Amino acid sequence: MAKPDDALIFDAGGDAPHQFERLIAIMACLRDPETGCPWDLEQDFASIAPYTIEEAHEVADAIAREAWSELPGELGDLALQVVYHAQMASEDGRFDIGDVLRAINAKMVARHPHVFGSESREKSAAQQTEDWERIKAAERAAAGKAERVGVLDGVALGLPALTRAIKLQNRAARVGFDWPSTDEVLEKIVEEARELEEARDDLGPVELAEEYGDLLFVMVNLGRHLGLDPEAALRAANLKFTRRFEHIEAGLAARGKSPKESDLAEMDALWNEAKAQGVK
Question: How many helices and strands (H and E) does the chain possess?
Fold first, then answer.
């Protein structure tokens, strides 16, 4: 394996292509069998994959908090994950970072015929999404990934559950498997909540988990019918809960107390105070 140029690794200047080349060289050094980092050398695709997911979530977190000064660093962490996987693949002779970039460049050109081809740009975002899925299905069929290309094929198992649920539902809806309005979805929520209550009282933990999952799945469907992203909505709710609970902690601290030294009634009053003050 050729040794990267030290001058490249320690050159903090230069434009974006230079910095990308520098990142590749740094990663190659970290994985050098003789002089690399012991921790980095122990890693493989499976051990790094959780970090890749974590870094993607940290990007989303910075965006949700509008922490724009943090976003370059978080995006850099995510870019490192791509380079890390490509470096390990290169060592195995599978592919390298050039193959990764060629693949995404070719995909983006092929999936945007209204920009890079002869198709009209006069399309709605919804129509473009349908076209995107149609092109993806054609790619899967051409690659021979399945004798029969199913409607739900290609929805990644590794996605966050809420995100995967809405993608599955969107795919099914495109072929007509969908409720016509939110009225039917709300009725289904009531039905699933009743079944969950019955499972709580009469069934075991496995059945209870199944009914709970059914209710969550229908709640995702309601969000889809309302034009909402369940993942983003729950992320916002998490942030709101965090900020309001911090208000509780601050209020208790002003009284010389901690949450453990308080009770539900006192904390609930501070929660309502936070709501009244518009804490979100």
Answer: 13, 0
Rg (CA), the chain: 25
Q: How far apart are CA 268 and CA 164, in angstroms?
A: 35
Residue 91 and residue 33 in contact, taking contact as beta carbons nearer than 8 Å = no
Number of compact structural domains in the chain: 3
Question: What global pTM score does this model have?
Answer: 0.65
Q: Are residues 93 and 164 in the same domain?
A: no
Question: Which ranges constitute the DSSP H helices of 92-204?
Answer: 97-110, 113-116, 125-142, 161-174, 182-202
* Position 16 in a domain: yes
**Can you give the residue range of the structural domain that contains 184?**
147-228
Indicate whether 247 belongs to any domain. yes
- pLDDT digit string (tens) for the chain, length 280 residues: 445 567 788 888 889 999 999 999 999 999 999 999 999 999 999 999 999 989 998 998 899 889 999 999 999 999 999 999 999 999 999 999 999 999 999 999 988 888 898 888 887 877 887 777 777 777 777 766 555 668 888 788 888 899 899 999 998 998 899 999 999 999 999 999 999 999 999 888 999 999 999 999 999 999 999 999 898 899 889 989 999 999 999 999 999 999 999 999 999 999 999 999 999 8
**Residues 159 and 254 reside in one and the same domain:** no
